[in-house]
Amino acid sequence: LPIFQFLKDDQWLDVKPIPSTLIVNLGDMMQALSDDEYKSVKHKVKLNKQEERVSICYFVFPQENTLIQSSKYKPFTYNEFRAQVQLDVKTVGSKIGLQNFRLPQIKINLI
């Protein structure tokens, strides 16, 4: 069977298939809009050449100048995000994207 995998703590973990179910991947915009309630994960599929696999991709993006606001990320437009991803790929070879917009975490000690 094809195996869906996601990256966690620098390890690829298998997702055990459940018959008659779907896997839904949400992207970086949904992670930002949900204040990290929903996570965008790096993923891949290991294929078995003897088995068929069906994938359906449906991508939805905000309008280019839509302002994305969240308590965990500095405000950015989709255009700014896309430009950052392109810069990431050119400079480091892969997408960093959303982490470039994360606000610093402030810890408050209560007395």
Give your account of this protein's structure.
There is one protein chain. This protein has a three-stranded antiparallel β-sheet with strand order 2-1-3, with no helix packed on it. It has a two-stranded antiparallel ribbon with strand order 4-5. With 111 residues, it is α+β, with helices and mostly antiparallel strands. It has one domain. The longest helix is centred in the C-terminal third of the chain and has 15 residues, at 78-92. It is built from two helices and five strands. The radius of gyration is 17 Å and the shape is globular. Strand 4 and strand 5 (76-77) form a beta hairpin. The protein has helices spanning 28-33, 78-92; strands spanning 3-8, 11-15, 43-46, 67-68, 76-77.
